């Protein structure tokens, strides 16, 4: 004779069974990444994307648990082509896909308008390479950055030009993008305050290839330093044409110029110490081994060298996952407060943010180039 099971007991049993089965299902965590993976700076965008891929591969291999469930991390990658309109479209696409967090964008010009879309949706955004101060000045609780901003970057380069390079006369050129204008303005302000004469401020675009008119004017001014606010895709041809026209000044630039690709883009026009540039980021001696290992692992995985910011996208992704694990949830509203107050030890150093979302104690690394292609570190400053 089969016993009769009360309906209430049967319902409870089914509920427990369902809960148990649910706990065994992987928790799908979608991480969005946006950068320019097409166009002139696609090499930088792919570098950033590769850093996220490495982090997600490692998280999945380790079998990270969030709230008692094994997490399965997925990448949703979008290309914004460094275009603000495409950037906001990509941001909305990720919001509609209900991503749990975003690492990106590459450029200030796309990250700033996109940040409002993420903020309205309550989705945390960690920008690995955005330096324009406006990015975190908007007051969004969801907005974080991994590197020092343009005030620090341009200011440091401006002082270095006068104090170390002994520049007395300076010409400034910017590409009219949010990044280029921002870093150029901060450089000009700092160089002028340190005693330099700003002979000219010229303007180009991020799509320009012919600088004959600008550089003819620059040559007539006989500057000691030309500062360019923009990216390597423009700086490379500019260096070639500076050499062709006999412009003797050193070229200085921010992180957009300071790439492993610059020597190729300059096509043999890169004389020793002709360029001094700075990357918004840098590690102290205690972090060198971890960063060197990352670079070796990256080259093994992708068959190419790190450009600039893949270590920062890697750390940003792991810092986001660490906050989720500590919060016991991948829901943005639940792990966001943890992310804001967390301190994650990464390959680039400790990832911790101030009240505005800026990285705490952000470093800068000054570089030059020698032997036609070798990027040489000059100093790490904070």
TrEMBL record:
Keyword DNA repair tagged: no
Domain of life: Bacteria
Alphabetical UniProt keywords: Amino-acid transport, Signal, Transport
InterPro entries registered for this protein in UniProt: Leu-bd (IPR028081), Leu_Ile_Val-bd (IPR000709), Peripla_BP_I (IPR028082)
Pfam families the record matches: Peripla_BP_6
Signal in keyword set: yes
Domain Leucine-binding protein, residue spans: 29-370
Segment forming the signal sequence: 1-23
Family the entry assigns: Belongs to the leucine-binding protein family.
PANTHER family reported for this sequence: AMINO ACID BINDING PROTEIN, LEU/ILE/VAL-BINDING ABC TRANSPORTER SUBUNIT
Protein name: Branched-chain amino acid ABC transporter substrate-binding protein
